[in-house]
Amino acid sequence: MIVVSDARLAILLCVLTMLGWGSWANMQKASDRDAWPFPLFYWDYTIGVFLFALVAWFGMHFSGESALTGFRLVNSISLIHGFISGVLFNIANLLLVVAIDATGMAVAFPLGIGLALIIGTVISYIESPRGNPLLIALGVLLILAAMLLSAAAHRRSDLGRTSNGAGGPIFAIVAGCLMGLFYPQLALAISPKVQAGHLSSHNLPPLAALLTFSIGVLVSNAVINTILMRTQGIQYSHFLGGRVGTHVWGLLGGAIWMFALACNLFASSAAGPAISYALGQGATLVAALWGVFVWKEFRSASEGTERLVALMLGCYAAGLVLIGAATFY
After folding, report:
1. Which helix (H) or strand (E) holds 188?
2. How far apart are CA 236 and CA 283, in angstroms?
3. What are the pLDDT digits (tens) for 191-205?
4. Is the pTM of this model over 0.70?
5. How far is CA 60 from the centre of its chain?
């Protein structure tokens, strides 16, 4: 079992989380060029999530540890927490994908993931109080300011002036509320003794928790996404008839996201769940940079919008620095 005890390594893993969680949505943007509906992209995404977790789980064999070790003598409550975390995440992320489709990455992420960061950080800190509470609180307030600035910038954009784009922030906010609840559930599935370098036989090690989480994602997606596909007149024959290259985008997006989650779980053993989650959700800053500078999502916005976007990015960056500094106090 991998146990991280050095705070600097934990921060590095959080940075990798940030990059992964902030970049996977580029795969959706790429699939849009093939006119691939997002419900079909999301099927590929959830399959990618599951396959990465499965490969990582079996990868424990190469370290001399049985792949079944993580599930022996496990308390069923831990399995339930892991599964529920996957269900909550899947519903939230599906709504986030809808919001991205309507508003773009530079708006959907600051609103949705920013709210998730605040909720998840507060809950995680209450359950496992590690790090300087004042620095964490100041960081969270700056993230909240960035969310408000993002909403203001969205109203000035072309998407914000259309009916579809106007509804996008609502999807992002609902997604954020649910997204903020999945991580505390996942943390409950993992042994609290991992932080001390030991593993309780009644809880899941990180890789086993990832697999349980991914099963929750896949199972819930089979229900929710099927309903969504029917509302849009999309059949499973469309999914099966897609080009291999088109499917790859979603599979890659899911694998990138799960790699980032794995880094985050290992980082939490040193930094604590609240700080590791908050830094990981700094993905919002990464996604906003992709949206602004690569996808040019504000190129037709009204005058003055660029100042709001710059201030939003500055608040997010400052908030992340404060939360990261809380690790060392």
Report:
1. helix 163-189
2. 32
3. 554 444 444 445 788
4. yes
5. 24
